[in-house]
Amino acid sequence: GVPDLFAETAQNLSAGITFRISDHLSASADYYSINVFDRILFSSQIQAKEEGDAIDQILSANGVKAVQFFINAGDTKTTGFDVVLNLSNVSAGKGRFGAVLSANFNEATIDKINTPDALEAGGYDIFDRREQSLITKSRPNSKILLGLSFQTDKLSINLDNTRFGEVTVTHASDPANDQVHSPKMVTDLGFSYELAKNLSMTANINNIFNVYPDVLDPKTGEDGGGRFVYSSIVQQQNFLGTTFRLGLNMKFVK
After folding, report:
1. Is 177 helix (H, G, I), strand (E, B) or coil?
2. Is the separation of the CB atoms in 168 and 140 below 8 Å?
3. DSSP H/E element including 117
4. Distance of CA 188 to CAs 6, 21, 176, 225, Å?
5. Are 49 and 118 in contact (CB under 8 A)?
6. Which region among 38-42, 56-60, 152-156 has the lowest average model confidence (pLDDT)?
7. Helix (H) or strand (E) holding 133
8. Which long-range contacts link 91-98 to residues 24+ away (Cβ below 8 Å)?
9. DSSP SS3 for 4
10. Sign of CA dihedral 117, 120, 121, 125
């Protein structure tokens, strides 16, 4: 009884304003609202509730215990607000200083779920709490960035501080077993130095303070029996800790 897939449709509304406060300072603000109708999503695992019911007969006839499928699952809505404050090209000694403060706040909701008739009649849930949370709670609902830069004729330095809002690891059925991961601050530092006209060296230290996501609570049922320390589907930042990169860049020009 699962219908064939068909194309999603969407409506997108956005509005924004950009203005210059001074020669070195500008700002922008943007609002967006995106409605997706008949959104294609991956269902929850469907297993027979009772031996001999209509779903059990279908599964048994095909020799399987459970199924998942892509389906035009329902309607979702995402709204958000972006604001950016940008300071640029300010004289500072022998160089130029810049700064940017940007923030995003967003919310995703599920407005409707389309359950096939045969499954709805049997009381089956094609999109349980865990699957729904991948739309609504698995990504931060806020992200704030403060970036600082300093540049001379040969040297460029960038320092970025990014705060990721909280996320939630959601249990399939019991809200008491959900786990909220606290907001995280990640700091990155980058250097670039011009060694010659067409040759430069770059160095980056990402996540300077070695910030990791919260460790999974076993009660969520997401740790694979203790095999997984961090969630693979609910994320703020990666779980690599501090990383280093050194590069040499050469430009070939006529």
Report:
1. helix
2. no
3. helix 117-121
4. 43, 28, 36, 34
5. no
6. 56-60
7. helix 129-136
8. 92/150, 94/152, 95/150, 95/151, 95/152, 95/155, 96/150, 96/151, 96/152, 97/148, 97/149, 97/150, 98/148, 98/149, 98/150, 98/151
9. coil
10. positive
What are the tokens at 45? Answer: 């695992």
What is the Cα–Cα distance from 134 to 70, expressed in whole angstroms?
Answer: 15
Q: How far apart are CA 138 and CA 108, in angstroms?
A: 10
Query: Can you tell me the distance from the alpha carbon of 107 to that of 136, in angstroms, rounded to the nearest whole number?
Result: 7
- Give the type of residue at 217: D
Give SS3 for 198: coil
Q: CB–CB of 165/140 below 8 Å?
A: yes
Q: What count of residues does the chain have?
A: 254
Query: How many of the other CB atoms lie within 10 Å of CB of 82?
Result: 17
What is the pLDDT of the chain when averaged over all its residues?
A: 91
What is the rounded distance in angstroms from the CA atom of residue 73 to the CA atom of residue 186?
A: 35
CA distances from 109 to 66, 140, 141 (A): 27, 14, 12
**CA–CA dist 48, 171 (Å, integer):** 20
79 close to 15: Cβ distance less than 8 angstroms: no
pLDDT digits (tens, 9 = 90+) for 176-228: 999 999 999 999 999 999 998 889 999 999 999 999 999 999 999 888 777 88
The continuous run of DSSP H or E covering 55 comes out as: helix 54-61
